[in-house]
Every structure is written in structure tokens, then in C-alpha cells.
Amino acid sequence: MTAKELRIAIGRLARRIRQLYTNASGDDLSFTELAVLSRLDRDGAHTSAQLAQLEKITAQAIGTVLGGLHRRGLVSRDPDPADGRRVITAISAAGRAALDNREQVITERLAAAVGSLTDDERDRLAAALPVLVRLSERL
After folding, report:
1. Which of 21, 128, 135, 137 has the fewest CB atoms below 10 angstroms from its CB?
2. Shortest CA distance to 33 belongs to which of 78, 87, 72, 88?
3. The whole model's pTM is what?
């Protein structure tokens, strides 16, 4: 397998999973909003500057994203106890529920797709997973 073939295959899978995440429920969350919610869920509360840097988007873009998430009650925004001039954003219970619902839908769809493979294909996929993880860590 060449690096190009691997890039194309993983790219297709990643795009399809992104599409499923975006369309998994009836709300209007963008992929960037979902990425920010996922980051807050995984890593905990951050300032908007930290989130912009981590998500590799502009300060203006993160401000728009956080404003929309806050209006919908998916994040909370409170003054930083160490520096009251800064605002700390954290995922709310509603934001966590939105992520959990999506992850359940995606996991079920992925499980169904894996279930449609032959036993040999499932075994080969299981054997490839540790290699894919190591490869992702080296990029």
C-alpha cells in the first residue's frame, strides 16, 4: 500500500464520519462547533484564545463559535478566577448530551458497517488498528 492510497482511504473515512457527526441529529451544529464541544469535553475549560490556538482558527471565528454555543446553552462562560478580565468557557450538561447523542449514533452506524464485513475483513481491520494509532502518533 502506498502513502497516497492510505491518505485517500483514510480521507474518505474521515469525511464520512464528519458528515455523520454533522448530520447525526436535527440541530444545526457546525463541524467547528462540534470540534470545540469535543475539545472542551475532553480537555476541560479553556479561554477563547486557547481554544482558537488549539483548533487552529482565528480569534474572530472562535468568538462567533462560542457565542453561538453559549446562546444555545451548550457552553458556560464565567470569569477566570485568576484573572477576572479573561473568560473561561466550559461545556454544559446540554453540550455534553449533544455530543453523547451524536457519538451513540456514529458508533451504531460504524458498528453496523463493521458488522457487514466478512469475518476475515473484521480480523484484518482489528489487526490494523494498533498500526493506525501508531501511524497517527508519528505524523
Report:
1. 137
2. 72
3. 0.70
Domains, the chain, in order of start with CATH, read 3-138 (1.10.10.10)
The three-point CA angle 93-59-88 to 5° equals 35
How confident is the model over 81-122, as pLDDT tens digits?
Answer: 888 889 999 999 999 998 888 888 889 999 999 999 999 999
DSSP secondary structure letter of residue 116 = T
Write the single-letter amino acid at 114.
Answer: V
Q: Which amino acid is at 55?
A: E
DSSP string, 33-85: HHHHHHHHHHH--EEHHHHHHHHT--HHHHHHHHHHHHHTTSEEEEEETTEEE
CB atoms within 10 A of CB 104: 11
Burial bucket for residue 74 (CB in 10 Å: 0-12, 13-18, 19+): buried
For the segment 71-82, what is each residue's pLDDT rounded down to a tens digit?
999 999 999 888
